[in-house]
């Protein structure tokens, strides 16, 4: 019983082979495909060609593992603190703006949903009208999440 699936697999494997075509379009772009009907100028490649491969580029070391050169300009701690404070203020202002925009978008969705009653809300036409508003709410929620994360990363 165990040999039957193995025997079937051995019989089916030759059927899995396909032909490969090299197609050149009018602009001279070359495409390799197994579908001859994809374009004109397709020629079947012979099956006895050697397979070529390109080695992966050498791995670069990350900049985090390299020490900062001594000639690199340093920022005074007070100047860096002032920059961080300014950045925090900008992010907090953006967060407040996004939270206000989220509240307005949620209000717009609630107003539009309030226009429809019961089963009417589930109609595709109504859902299509509400979807852009819901997308706007979701966008503001993602922006708020990103801003809070950025604020959390500040020292």
UniProtKB/TrEMBL annotation:
<feature type="signal peptide">
    <location>
        <begin position="1"/>
        <end position="18"/>
    </location>
</feature>
<keyword id="KW-0732">Signal</keyword>
<protein>
    <submittedName>
        <fullName>DUF4124 domain-containing protein</fullName>
    </submittedName>
</protein>
<dbReference type="InterPro" id="IPR025392">
    <property type="entry name" value="DUF4124"/>
</dbReference>
<feature type="compositionally biased region" description="Low complexity">
    <location>
        <begin position="61"/>
        <end position="73"/>
    </location>
</feature>
<keyword id="KW-0175">Coiled coil</keyword>
<feature type="domain" description="DUF4124">
    <location>
        <begin position="7"/>
        <end position="59"/>
    </location>
</feature>
<dbReference type="Pfam" id="PF13511">
    <property type="entry name" value="DUF4124"/>
</dbReference>
<feature type="region of interest" description="Disordered">
    <location>
        <begin position="36"/>
        <end position="88"/>
    </location>
</feature>
<feature type="coiled-coil region">
    <location>
        <begin position="88"/>
        <end position="150"/>
    </location>
</feature>
């Amino acid at each position: 019983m165990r040999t039957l699936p193995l025997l079937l697999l051995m019989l089916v494997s030759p059927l899995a082979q396909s032909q490969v075509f090299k197609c050149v379009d009018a602009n001279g772009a070359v495409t390799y495909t197994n579908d001859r009907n994809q374009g004109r100028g397709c020629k079947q490649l012979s099956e006895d060609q050697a397979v070529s491969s390109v080695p992966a580029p050498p791995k670069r070391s990350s900049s985090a593992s390299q020490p900062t050169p001594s000639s690199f300009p340093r920022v005074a701690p007070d100047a860096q603190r002032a920059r961080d404070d300014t950045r925090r203020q900008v992010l907090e202002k953006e967060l407040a703006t996004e939270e206000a925009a989220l509240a307005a978008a949620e209000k717009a969705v609630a107003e539009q949903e309030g226009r429809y009653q019961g089963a009417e809300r589930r109609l595709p036409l109504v859902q299509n009208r509400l979807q852009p508003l819901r997308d706007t709410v979701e966008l503001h929620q993602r922006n708020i999440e990103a801003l809070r994360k950025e604020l959390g990363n500040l020292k």
